[in-house]
Amino acid sequence: MKNLSVLLSLAATFQGALAHYRWTSLVANGTKTADYYFVRQNTNYNSPVTDVTSNDIRCNAGGLASGASTNTATITAGSTVGFALDQSIYHIGPIQVYMSKAPSTASSYDGSGDWFKLAQLGPSFSSGAINWDATQVGQYTFKLPSSTPSGQYLLRVEHIAVHAASGANGAQFYISCANVNVVGGGSGKPGPTIKLPGGYKATDPGILFNPYYPVPTSYTFPGPAVWSG
Ligand SMILES: *[C@@H]1O[C@H](CO)[C@@H](O)[C@H](O)[C@H]1NC(C)=O
Ligand SMILES: [Cu+2]
């Protein structure tokens, strides 16, 4: 009995290591939408991006080419939106969500414009311990500010796995982008913005980061501050 449960937990760990979590679907109107219906399909299966200077840091490998074959979701400014994963996050690290306005349609947009940050979920700290609040999350949602200007955008989510981030290019970026059309928006001025690539450096304190020792007492999110509307 005991041996069996050890075996099963070993098997689960091994399977987990083989099959990384992926952000497969958009969550809107309180509903998890179909896998890769509004989310751009990637070509690296479940592997992370590790080079922050690559165009893959925008929408994952293959995520620029698959825009045209991906549907565009209508989402309402002021509503709750987000992304769901095929399995819960099991590495330690933060979640961040960005958006970038398309010059024309979301499906034809390559993400080369300005990106602003909408949400982030990092660790919390309590009596000498670091608690990775994003670990075990299966779905991450946030409120899209009601002043977000209407129009078509790329909505991008990432989990930055930092378990091996104390070495150069050790941070792993699990990324997906959705094509969205924001309706009912306002006249907000989203910012500050970054370019992707460009806005992240391999040496940013939240990217080149030792999560173990000495036990961190703070975490510096890479990228700009969150735009809250
Ligand atoms: C959300 O609801 C609105 C209003 O009914 C609808 O227009 C829109 O298509 C829905 N979006 C998604 C992604 O289901
Ligand atoms: Cu892994």
From TrEMBL:
It is found in: Secreted. GO terms for biological process: cellulose catabolic process. CDD domains: LPMO_AA9. It is an enzyme of class 1 (oxidoreductase). Its cofactor is Cu(2+). Its EC number is 1.14.99.56. One of its GO terms (molecular function) is cellulase activity. Keywords: Carbohydrate metabolism, Cellulose degradation, Disulfide bond, Polysaccharide degradation, Secreted, Signal. Gene3D superfamilies: 2.70.50.70. Residues 20-219 form the Auxiliary Activity family 9 catalytic domain. This is AA9 family lytic polysaccharide monooxygenase.
